[in-house]
Amino acid sequence: xxxxxxxxxxxxxxxLWTKMKAASIFDEHTYYADNLKETLVPIIPVxxxxxxxxxxxxxxxxxxxxxxxxxxxxxxxxxEQILFTIYSPDMLDIVEIRNFMTDEFRRMDESARDxxxxxxxxxxxxxxxxxxxxxxxxxxxxxxxxxxxxxxILEIQYSRITDSNGRFA
Length: 169
Known about the structure:
Blueprint: H1 8-22, E1 32-33, E2 38-39, E3 43-45, H2 50-56, E4 61-71, E5 78-88, H3 91-105, H4 109-117, E6 125-135, E7 139-140, E8 148-160
Parallel strand pairs: 3-4
Antiparallel strand pairs: 1-2, 4-5, 5-8, 6-8, 7-8
């Protein structure tokens, strides 16, 4: 039975978190929630902001969502766009994250290769290409007072591993 909760954007989130921690862009100890007794990953899916304000108050974070999906000539290869909105009260945090994502994902096939070689990737996905489709100018956030925001859009092409009938495995 396939697991329909699996999604390529969740795999990219896990990959980004691992790589950003390794690059010291995020310090996971800063995001430890005492009342939850665990570290919150500050790369969160789109949601109502008030629920997260108590945990992310004044801290840089990223909100992500899928903004487009299609299958082109080959139904085995999915083409998606993933929107990452970077929030921080400090312009240099945004510059650092934006530059990191640009460096990580500007290499298209080689970027996909790096994700495929990562040990944390689900065996249900194979990435073919990942690249920066767009980066918006940094501006004051309309959602969070006192924060700046910029959007980074990744375009990804990947395959979901299928069974002999072409259905998700």
